[in-house]
Structures are given as C-alpha cells and as structure tokens.
Amino acid sequence: MTAPMTDTPTLELRRASKSFGSVQALADVDFEVRDGEVMALVGDNGAGKSTLIKSVVGIHPFDSGEVLFDGKRVHIHGPKDAARLGIEVVYQDLALCDNLDVVQNMYLGREAHDVLHRLKEPVMEQKTAETLKTLSVTTISSVRQTVATLSGGQRQSVAVARSVMWNSRVVILDEPTAALGVVQTHQVLELVKRLAEQGLAVVIISHNLNDVFEVADRITVLRLGRNVGVYERAKTTQQEIVGAITAGVPTKVAGIAGTGEDVA
Amino acid sequence: MSSPAPAAETTAEPREGAVAIAGAYFERLKAGDVGSLPVIVALVAMTIFFTAKSTIFFTAINFDNLMVQMAGTAVMAIGVVFVLLLGEIDLSIGSVSGVGGVVVAEMQQAGTGHNFGGVTAIILAIVVGALIGALQGTFVAIVGVPSFVVTLAGLLAFEGVILKALGIQGVIGIQSNTVNNVANYFLSDRWGWGIAAAVAAALVATAAGSYITRRRAGVSTGNLTLTVLRVVALSVVVFGVVAICNHSRGVPFAGILVVGLIVFWTYVARRTTFGRHVYAVGGNPEAARRAGINVVRIRILVFMISGAMAALGGVVFAARLSSVDLTAGSGTILLDAISAAVIGGTSLFGGRGFVRSALLGALVIKTIENGLDLLGQTDWVKDVTTGVILLAAVTLDTVSRRRLQASGR
Predict the structure, then answer these.
(1) Which end of chain B has the least Cβ crowding within 10 Å, N or C?
(2) Which residues in chain B are contacts of A116 at CB distance < 8 A?
(3) How confident is the model at residue B201, as a pLDDT?
(4) CATH number, domain containing residue A84
C-alpha cells in the first residue's frame, strides 16, 4: 500500500485471519474506520462479526494479518491494550452492574481514587454528569439512580457514555439496539451519531438494516468470514446490502475493499 | 434554571422536608433496597414488648449483658456480610471461630514454648482465620468449587482440628487478662462519655466534610435535612447507650470493639475501590471482569475477611468464658452469625447490603434470646421465634428483589 489517499484510517485491519481449529472464522479480512465516521459491520449469523471484534480487542488475537492504529502497526494482546489505545467495546449484554448506580457503573474498574484507594465520589459524579450532558443524554434524572431502575435505552446510553469517557478514539457497539423499543432505539441511534460528530471513529454491529441505514456512513459486509465489500450508505440500497449478506458479491473489489474511493 | 454548576441540571430537583425523606426512601425501595428501616422497627417493637413484659429487661445491667452477648455474633456477622455481598456463603465460620478461640488460648498458655502476650495471641488467631479464609477462597475463586461445598468441608475439617488441638483434656483456660478483657472489661464513666463525645464529633465532621467537598465540586449535596436528622439521631443513640451503660458497670469494651469494626468495615465497603469492586462482583461478575476488575483477587480477599472476623469472634466468645472447650464454635454460633447478617438486611443474592446489618441483626437475635430468657421461656420458643424472624427477613429480601426484576424494563 502506498500513501493514503485522504486521511489515515484510525483503525485498520489488513488481511486479518482467525481460525478456531479447522473452522476458518475470518479469512483475509480488510477493515477500516476513520475519525468522525460511523462504520457499520453487517453480516448473517456466523459471518464473523463478533470474532472480528473480539480479535481486535485481543480477547483472541488474529492468527495473521496486521492491525494498524493511526497508520502504525500495533499488537493488541488483551482488552487492557485495546483500552490503552483508546478502543472501547460496548457489548450486547451491556456489562453493567444492576446493583450499582450510574456513576459507579461509569467508573467501574477505573474508579478515581487517592493513594489509599479512597474513592473520590464528587469528582466521579461531576464527570459523569458532564459526560452525559455533552452526549445530550437527558433522560436520566439522577446519576445516583441504580441502573436497575433504568429503562433499556437508558442503560444502553450509560454503557455508551462509559465507553467515551476515557479519551477513547474508537468505539465499537455490538448490537446496541437489539431488544429496544422504537423510541429507545431512536435515542440510542441519535447518541451514536453524536459520537461520530464529536470526532470518534464508531463501529456499529447490527442485524437491523433500518438502523444501519439511519446512522452509518459506510457499511462493511462480512459473509462466511470474508469481506464481501464496503458500501457507502448514500450510494447503496438495502436490497444491495441484503444481497451481499446472503449471496455475496464476488466481483466487488475483493482484496482492496476498505480503501475508500475504490469502492464507489 | 441558571445553576452555577452544569451538573445540577442532570440531578433531580431537590425537595425539602418529610416529603423528600419519604421520597428518597421510596426511590431506594424501588431499586430493591429495603434498607435498615424494617429491622430498626422490629428492634424498637421488641424492646417495647420485653420492657412491658419484664421488669429486668430495660435495666442497665441487662443492657450491658446484652451488648457482651451479641458482640461475638456481630463480629462474625461482619465477615458474613462481605461473603453475602459476593453472592457466596461461608458455612465454616462456626468452626473457624472455634479455631480462633483455640489459637488464642493456646498462644497465651503459660508453661509452653509459646506463651505470648495477649495482643500477639489475638493477632495470631486473626491471622490463622485469614489464612483459612485464603485457602477456602482459593478453592472457590480459582478452582471454581461452589462455596457452599468448600465451606461445608471446612466446617467439618476444622471441627476435627479443634478436637485434635484440645486433646483428651478438652479445655484450655485463659489466664491472659488482655484476652479476657476483650469481653469482660468495662470502661469508666468518664471514658464512656469521652468516646460518645468523640463519636458525635466525628459524625458531625464527616457529614460536614462530605457536604463541603460535594458542594465545592458542584454536585448534588443530597438532602440536608435528612443528613442533619441522621447525625442527630445517631448521636442521641450513642449518648443514650453510654448513659444506660454508665448506670451499671460502664460501656463494655466488646461494644466499642463491635462499633469500631462496623465503622471501619463500612468505610472499606463504601468508600474504597476494594469495597466498590466487592459490590460489583456481587452484582454482575461478568461485568466486573470485563471492566478489568480482578475477580479472583476480590473473592479470595473476601473469604479472608470472613475467616479473620470469624476468628476474632471466636476470641470474643473464648474471652467471655475465659477458656475454650470442645463446644467452641459449635451450637448455634454459625447460624446466629449468618442469620444476623440476613436479618439485618443483607441480601442472600449478592450485591445488596450494608456492614451495619451485622450489628442490627445480631441485636435482633440476641434481644430475642435475652428477652425470652428473662420471660422464663425455654429453648424451643427462642428457636422458633428466631426461625420465624429469619424467614420473614429472607422473604422481604426475595420479594423486594422480585419487585425489582418486575420493574426492570
């Protein structure tokens, strides 16, 4: 690859492969996401979406291929490495503690404390309120509410807000709207758009193409562990994406997918 | 609303007076947290009942007795609270308390190679308890054996250890005054008042300090009326207890020990990262693990706390009798401690509860025992009453948890 055509992708995968025993979960997948864009990752069950995410954050690293962050090759051996680079994942099952309040969940595992490990509650409470405010999450009346009392959409908002609080650069959302009602889905999608507006690189995994077409700038389609193509939302249709997900489009820019302009 | 602090806008409108207090409690109820109100109501009701029925119940002497009677159970129940917060159980604490008693008695024994001073003997007992906890915690956290089974095995094994340690003699007397004083020393009137004043001053200072730092940070300062009421009520209780005790032998050291431990462990549970992680692991272990919390370490440490507190409870029991014998750690000691934590309002399902429930629950259990003794009731009445109250507490816990799941949208 020669010099990038526009800007360098924030996160880029080149010919990434992963197999579990004899099962080839990912084969030579190219993938990228840039600052300020929402990249959707779609595909049928078993297409390799979750594997891709888990490999990116180092839960089970790729067998071969390169991971580039800001154009530089990086090695991610675990979630902590990923977090250090600024890659955050919001998992499908939320990973919130019901018995703790919003502030406590936002800071879970990274509490602000002094040398004696005493918690700095006012600092955490203030920062939480501030973060929710910058993301325009206004439906949560008190940051001292326990998460158990929140609705699904509010919980998802907390989980998303938590991921952006740590100077993160890339936020990966795994099925953020699954199991949400219409209004709540809308709230969460608005939140996803705001993340990109704030300059973050956002990856959203979803089965729901309506949601994908509402928020995504570009769409990467995986099929049976291979990258079928990268589509620009403005220049594609849901039918085309469905076709790619189910049948695949072998002629479509294989090998150079993810290089932006080439795709159009 | 032109609030100086941006944070204020996302927090609920402050309300004043009784409405606010009731409202705040209702919010907590909705979150599945019944708090300490039911058990405090139960305690007041029992006090009124026994005072009406027995002329001896509400006397200074009996009050002193009650405090010493409940001390060992309360200390052990603190460890139980931590284990329950994780959603685990520790059935070995009875035996471990026996081991603690044996260790402290053995280590102060004159004429042996290890007749240490009282303080050293007590510390050794606590260390042994913590090590036992570490061993059991390792099996639970690393190997993954259910805590119920690990600690059931511990219950049996350490009972055997007690039998072996006491040998054919079957009893060790405690000569060390330091050890015996744990349960038998009473503070002078002046010291009692001094401590009460210090506690009240600390309450005021803590509340004021928290108010000021929160205000400075521009976050919600909570309900001021409620805070003031709480500080005043607690101070009244503290001074009241000292006043009553001073009519008899004075404030028992065991009472000071229990209160000191409750304050210390409450601080650890609510104000440190460790405590926060205990609640997190109890609430959702997977979420805690993904958030980077070392779940294994937390689990092992909690079982160490449980073992250490059980051993210290055993020291209190041994000190009260000035000896240990083959009955050490047996009988209702285990079930009293677990019941105390649960009756006090700590959930069996993990993640919900307070260290103070150890004290409140121990008070309930020992008040029943003490009161029914004074009324000349036999053991079966005490057992049935305690059983009914335990069932009521667990039912309350289960129902509030179910309500929570039903309302969780």
Answers:
(1) N
(2) 272
(3) 95
(4) 3.40.50.300
In one-letter notation, the amino acid at residue B86 is L
Contacts of A104 in chain B (CB under 8 A): 276, 279-280
Q: Is A136 on the interface with B (CB under 8 A)?
A: no
pLDDT in tens, B16-54: 556 766 776 776 666 656 677 888 888 999 999 999 999
The residue among A53, A54, A96, A99 with the most chain B CBs within 10 A of its CB, best to mutate, is: A99
Q: Looking at beta carbons, which pairs linking B274-278 to residues 24 or more positions away fall under 8 Å?
A: B274/A117, B274/B298, B274/B301, B276/A100, B276/A104, B276/A111, B276/A119, B277/A109, B278/B82, B278/B85, B278/B86, B278/B302
Contact between residue B149 and residue B86 where contact means Cβ atoms under 8 Å apart: no
pTM score above 0.90: no
Instruction: Report yes or no on A129 lying in a domain.
Output: no
Given CATH 1.10.3470, say whether it is the number of domain B27-185+273-404.
yes
Put simply, the answer to whether A141 touches B12 (Cβ < 8 Å) is yes
Which token pair is A240? 């085309």
Q: How many domains does chain A have?
A: 1
Q: Which residues of B touch A (CB under 8 A)?
A: 5-7, 9-12, 27, 30-33, 213-214, 216-220, 271-274, 276-277, 279-280, 282-284, 286-288, 290-293, 350-352, 404, 407-409
Contact A122 B273 (CB under 8 A): no
End-to-end CA gap in chain B: 31
Closest partner residue to A118 (CB to CB) among B220, B272, B293 is B272
